[in-house]
Amino acid sequence: MTRGGEGSSPGPYLTVQVGSEKYAFDSSQAPVTIGRLDPQLKSQADIPIADTRISGTHLVLDYANGQWTATDRSRNGVYIDGNPAANFVVTERLVVTLGHPQFGITIRLGFETTTTPGQLRLGAAITARLAELNISRRTLAAKGVVSAGVLAAIEHGQSQPRPATMAKLEDALGWPRGHMNALLYGDDGGMTTAAVTQAPVNAAEAERTELLSTSGTAGYDGSGVVAMLGTTVKLALAAYRAQIDTLRPDSADFPTEAASILSALRELDAAADNAMRAAPPPPPAETVTALAAVRKMYRELMLLAAQSPHATVGQRLFAARDSAGLSLDEAATMAGVSTQDIRVAENDGALPDTTAEAISKLRETLTAVP
What SS3 state is found at 213? Predict the structure, then answer.
């Protein structure tokens, strides 16, 4: 497999935190090994851990096809949320335990991206376009356009598509040839706008939409990228608003339908936050407003979902925490768990029984507050 992912640009820096020690690796340094600190071993792990429960080579982190993956090579196992994890894709803020499901060594995985303004611009535009057309990553993967993992990396500005993939994406998104290059490199051959026909989110919205190009508006200092991101976020939010307006809270399908939109909003939030961090301060006011709008819509939908008779435990937890005015960190402290545990619980992810019980007690306590 070719390292470095879909495009020629470097992938995201992988960060690994073990206790107070934090390590960072770029894709060219893969594979990265985590193993036992033992002077008698012929080769030492890239990240050594002085614990007898850790194997000489315990976990191998590799980069291929636009994503970091992990493979368990140990005797005592690797666990996520208390469950064995032999092979998995590394995601942001992922907590992994080595050697024992509850009492092992905790490591925290994440990313620091190296990206160009053009990649951020292209990724934000694709995210917004997918929302406009109501197309999921899985749909594009099923059609053979691009894998979901590679597309996620492109949307986050961590990779860029090869020419063949770019052509497939332009066709799938209804963009003219060359449009993605214009977004990527800031050159659209003198055109200031590109009119493209969008597939309607619903019949009432079947109309032509102009997407602003980057020519003359998005410079390479990063500020123009973030300014354009504000526009693309607004387009995406308009599409999500149309979807939310069709939801029926009394329907048994409501939690699932809401969860899909909530997941997309989290992706949009992450893309916007990533772009904001990459730009020189202060970011444009319209971008700050757009990011605030994403979080406002997320809160609105979570609270709406919590009122449904079919609400999930995570949605009810969010509503209880919101009503009490608690941050994620504050809720975690009160429950005696990590902030990531609260985040996972609100997203209805799997947690160890003891952690889930502690969070459930917190929710009951907060719900009882008049």
Answer: coil
DSSP at 29: G
**199 and 174 Cβ atoms separated by less than 8 Å:** yes
Task: Write down which residue in 111, 135, 152 finishes a domain.
Answer: 111
- Write down the residue that tokens 């990063």 correspond to: 222
Of the candidates 80, 111, 142, which is a domain's last residue? Answer: 111
Distances (CA, A) of 55 to 24, 31, 33, 62, 100: 21, 17, 11, 18, 12
134 Cβ contact partners less than 8 Å away, ≥ 6 residues apart: 199, 201, 239, 243
Q: Give the residue numbers spanning the domain of 20.
A: 14-111
- What distance lies between CA 244 and its chain's CA centroid? 21
Q: What angle do CA 271, 260, 286 make, to 5 degrees?
A: 35
CB distance 99 to 7 below 8 Å: no
**Element (H or E) spanning 148, and its range?**
helix 148-155
pLDDT per residue of the chain (370 residues) written in tens, 0 to 9: 223 344 434 445 788 888 877 787 767 678 999 999 877 766 678 888 988 899 999 999 998 877 889 999 999 999 998 999 999 999 888 999 999 998 899 999 988 655 666 777 788 788 878 877 888 888 898 898 988 777 877 887 767 788 888 999 999 999 998 888 888 876 433 322 222 222 333 322 322 222 333 333 333 344 455 555 666 777 778 878 888 888 888 888 888 888 888 888 887 787 677 666 656 677 777 777 888 899 999 999 999 999 988 888 999 999 999 999 999 999 999 999 988 889 889 988 888 889 999 999 999 999 887 7
Q: Are 295 and 303 in contact (CB under 8 A)?
A: no
Q: Are residues 227 and 364 in the same domain?
A: yes
Cα angle at 153 between 152 and 157, to 5 degrees? 115
CB 341 within 8 A of CB 332: yes
Dihedral sign computed on CA atoms, order 243, 249, 250, 255 = positive
- Residue 22: its H or E element: strand 21-25
Residue 157 contacts residue 89 (beta carbons within 8 Å): no
